């Protein structure tokens, strides 16, 4: 497998090749969700760059950064099926942050304000800083992101527009475990009791989706909160319904608009997020 630690090596390697390049940015501890992005990128591009970089500037909690799972050996094995077209980029911080390891400040028309933006101050500035660096240094034709981090995905799309780099952002569906838990590198941090309790998150979201035309947002929220409270291993961080276009939480569902539920739940110190779309029906019950 081709492994580089600097973007200049990648440029030299690709310089004499006819190429389309897909970028899959990751923080490692790869799971089937990441591999699904690599699979799509491999179908659409001659070369796929997978970056593995645990980006310190996007962590608002130092303990979370220190505990973030790492397993480069396992990650290489997980990527080995794509060896022929895969470039693994494992930079040191200096390659992405040549001056100072700190975030720039961004504004995305309010997309960054709520949910993860409010509960993890500075998080999206850190994400945007590293994604801007990855985009500018690697100059891919396409970049692949999962819908589990839906707010991040919308912010990256807005960033891409601001930067005007003409990169195509490819949105990829959430990949779930058999019991419905959204795949996440953080799932490896769950103890057996927390892992057993965690599927209630998606189970409850599915139940809400089933009742979406009858329940108000307050009823959805109360149902979710009660489901999480019944599990001693879990603690609700937030439940919001927001319009997909502006990501502003609302209790008022207008007919014909598209919404999403966004949740964050703690299992011990591990924070899990999930999201589902509410269908575009004209029969929402107003609250
Ligand atoms: O979603 C992630 O893994 C990270 O936020 C990303 C996009 C790789 C930036 O560090």
Look at the helices and sheets and give the structural class: alpha/beta
Heterogens: pantoate
Going by CATH, the architecture of the largest domain would be: 3-Layer(aba) Sandwich
How many alpha or pi helices?
A: 11
CATH class of the largest domain: Alpha Beta
Backbone CA Rg: 19 Å
Multimerization state:
single chain
* Mean pLDDT across all amino acids: 96
CATH homologous superfamily caption of the largest domain: HUPs
Helix fraction by DSSP (H/I, runs of at least 4):
25-40%
Q: Can you walk me through this structure?
A:
By secondary structure, the protein is of the alpha/beta class. The protein folds into 2 domains: 2-172, HUPs (Rossmann fold, 3-Layer(aba) Sandwich); 185-278, Pantoate-beta-alanine ligase, C-terminal domain (Pantoate--beta-alanine Ligase, Chain: A,domain 2). The protein is 36% helix and 20% strand. The strands form 2 sheets. Strands 1-4-3-2-5-6 form a 6-stranded parallel sheet, sandwiched between helices. It has a 3-stranded antiparallel sheet with strand order 7-8-9. Helix 8 links the parallel strand 5 (142-146) and strand 6 (168-172). Helix 7 (123-138) packs across helix 8 (150-163) and helix 10 packs antiparallel against helix 11. The longest helix is centred in the middle third of the chain and has 16 residues, at 123-138. The chain is globular, with a radius of gyration of 19 Å. The model has no long low-confidence stretch (mean pLDDT 96). Bound molecules: pantoate.
């Amino acid at each position: 497998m081709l492994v580089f630690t600097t973007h200049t090596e990648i440029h030299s390697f690709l310089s004499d090749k006819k190429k389309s390049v897909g970028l899959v940015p990751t923080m490692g501890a790869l799971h089937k969700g990441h591999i699904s992005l690599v699979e799509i990128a491999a179908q659409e591009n001659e070369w796929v760059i997978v970056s593995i970089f645990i980006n310190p500037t996007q962590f608002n909690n130092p303990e979370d950064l220190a505990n973030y799972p790492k397993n480069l050996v396992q990650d290489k094995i997980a990527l080995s099926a794509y060896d022929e077209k895969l470039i693994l980029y494992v930079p040191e911080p200096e390659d992405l942050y040549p001056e100072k390891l700190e975030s720039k400040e961004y504004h995305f028309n309010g997309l960054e304000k709520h949910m993860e933006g409010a509960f993890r101050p500075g998080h999206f500035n850190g994400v945007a800083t590293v994604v801007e660096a990855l985009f500018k240094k690697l100059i891919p034709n396409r970049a692949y992101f999962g819908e589990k981090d839906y707010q991040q995905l919308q912010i990256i799309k807005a960033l891409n527009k601001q930067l005007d780099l003409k990169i195509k952002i490819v949105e990829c569906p959430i990949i779930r475990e058999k019991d419905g838990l959204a795949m996440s590198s953080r799932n490896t941090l769950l103890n057996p009791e927390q892992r057993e309790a965690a599927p209630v998150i998606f189970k409850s979201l599915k139940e809400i989706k089933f009742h979406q035309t009858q329940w108000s947002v307050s009823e959805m929220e109360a149902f979710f909160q009660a489901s999480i409270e019944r599990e001693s291993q879990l603690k609700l961080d937030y439940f919001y319904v927001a319009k997909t276009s502006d990501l502003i939480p609302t209790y008022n569902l207008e007919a014909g608009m598209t919404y999403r539920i966004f949740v964050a739940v703690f299992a011990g110190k591990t924070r899990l997020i999930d999201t589902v779309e509410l269908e575009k029906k004209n029969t929402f019950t107003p609250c």
